[in-house]
């Protein structure tokens, strides 16, 4: 979603054979040495007992031991086996997040198919990701099934990996379940919840960039009857960003409470409070000087920080509180209500990097012309309030061989954004040969946006999950949404109102074979109000729409912790708004078509060995219809044809554990094929080594093991480097 009025320049600068056999080679390569080590280990050592909470997966929101989840609520808003979901779905469990040392959401999703992390390079502020070629960060992620809506603004809701029980990714349009949304998919973070089994965990981390972090997770019963449960999760971090000694300080507190007066009724209160006091770190550089050499054959150091640590600031405060209520009226009817209220305050400013400054126009090849870089100041102060409620009534019916699980829903969301943003002004040029920061002379321009945006959506939906003879599953759903947007523009004194309504549908079928195979097919739709005015005509743009055909197959052998999937899809997005690179004016490009294949394997190959592997083949991601004929046939986003990732970890009987991962991203022509040359392919390696003994768990995680300076994307004039190497040592004590 975008603002209701003038397009936001600075924002756009930021945004620039069998399945088993398919993964067999990777599994053999990684497992071979481990199997040999296991056979040659000699005398076996008995490990001390370690407390494990929830060895079996009780529901689609509960803890999963290991990597393989079998249930989810994201794909249907009901607790449903994943194998019965007619759409591609991945679950990243807390155990997997911990083993990989994933510090943020994009790290956690870096080994899932169809996902591009860091399309704008390393970024301390935001978790930019793309799913099936489309931005998944706007209009926002989901937390516990409710939206974390943003409007293309800079104050974006944040989630915490330590507070997550699982992170789930439903690929493709999902408006029938969630209303307005991005066609690439839904990212839903499931919070840790109170448990009857005691959880007592303390964790300490130290690492690169002066990282010092303490975290704790505690849960259990508050009374003898076990009807009142609590959980308290918290994080405190004192750290620096990779450049300029800027702070990266943070705290997070998530208290929750569950009341179960009977087996038919559950009320869970969920809350989160976080504060970030940090600078702003990105690795953006001119295309000529990074991807390509300058005219005199020079390149800038990838570690050169072009902004200013003394000026940059990213202060982010966020509070959320809500509840999830469920009551089983009788064997047929169950009602649910999920509610959350949230507030966010942002104070953000940064110097954005520019281009080389010509110091000697008479001699274009003078080295002085490739030494100084311009910079432009930017700031945004925002106050955001949000309210979400989702009411559901579920009927479980049986008619002979037919079982129906019908969900009737009514949801409402409201987001109010009070924002003052400035872009441009004056700032001193940076001497790349001898950078000096904090010299002053920075003056911000007048606000380009000063207003209050209010966004509301009311949706009515119905879904029927039908099962016939425990072999066929049909999913049919429809939804009607009424979305409204209002803008009070304090610069012009104008009030602008918009209204969009849309019906979306979904249909899918799964055939459950007795040997664990489940082929499926589905058709899904989505819509997204643009809330943007065409500056050329003064009339509102129409809503974006999308539709997807998907066919796939899953394999989950009975009684094993193994899950394999393959999917092919054809996804089309219409009325897609982008911004002109020269004028930053918005226009609706017409249609973008994405077709591809995705493979995923998540399995416990051997006792104490977990493996996850993913492959994405994008046959095309191009503009197929546009008012600008020159755009047709061009790649719409920086989507490589091939992506592959594999991670495996193994825990020896003596408590030593090791893990190794590789992430390959193929080459692209950059954003909108605007890059002056192909962005090269890159392979990034991650590793883990650790030791478990008694109640202790020690781990050393290395992300980007070889410290490779890989470009993740390029535009016409700028390029983005991925994150540098990070080394984190973690000690966890469970008692």
From TrEMBL:
Belongs to the TonB-dependent receptor family. GO terms for biological process: siderophore transport. It is a multi-pass membrane protein. This is Iron complex outermembrane receptor protein. It comes from Paracidovorax anthurii. Its main location: membrane. InterPro entries: Beta-barrel_TonB, Beta-barrel_TonB_sf, Plug_dom, Plug_dom_sf, TAT_signal, TonB-dep_rcpt-like, TonB_sidphr_rcpt. PROSITE patterns: TAT, TONB_DEPENDENT_REC_3. Residues 82-186 form the TonB-dependent receptor plug domain.
